[in-house]
Amino acid sequence: MRKIFGILSIIIVLFLIFSVLSGINVERIDIAGSTSVQPLAEQLTTEYSKNKPNIKINVQGGGSGMGIRSASQGLADIGMSSKELSDDEIKNIDVVEIGKEGIVVGVHNSNPVDDLTTDELKKIFSGEINNWKELGGNDEEIHVITREDGSGTRSAFESIVMDDKDIKNDAIVQSSTESVKQAVASDDAAIGYMSLAHMGDEVRPVKINGIVASEENIANGQYELQRPFLFLVNKDYSNATSEFLEWVKSSEGTKIIEDAKIIPSN
After folding, report:
1. 167 lies in the same domain as 123
2. In which domain, by residue range, is 113 found?
3. pTM of the shown model
């Protein structure tokens, strides 16, 4: 019996030693921020990690505002943002543009309205236009779906569309681009804006000023509603983070970006 306990003790000690030694070289990269950028970041990190057993990467959302703060304060190795940074925000941060993405305005599949001008959008989201019949649609009150304050998608939409107007106070607020899509899909009088990469058959995209939201029209600049996908890093970042960012810009990383319907940056 003592012999058995002795063997078990040796096995446990060896296991603990192996666990400690094997963990010495493991490096962690924490990524946080924009929920629009998050799915692409997860795809990139999953592929990258396949050949990097000593790298552990954690990706979480929280919005562009969180991504900017996390990078600036060193709370995450990489912050994600889908909005441009102000001069104050860019202090102590290096900005790596992954690509550009379209913001799609979506309506319920049963809605007959298929083309809106940016001025009509502004009037809809500010509450100046309240009924679909004013736009050639059904006699129904328009239900406006928007993102929360701090969202990169909202910031870009406001910058491009709203000018000096505010989004109406009684707009329904959703916390992610996916939840906006689901809210529009379940309400035949709803309208909302979301990422092109998240578009599916659940909702129908509306042309803006006669232009379809497509990768080609985003790349050539004809489609106005577009914004950047950014990785943000504190200027004092690790070698592991640097190597990951270099890989993102490689042909392998670029292919993943293209497959996600994002227009890669040069």
Report:
1. yes
2. 101-226
3. 0.72
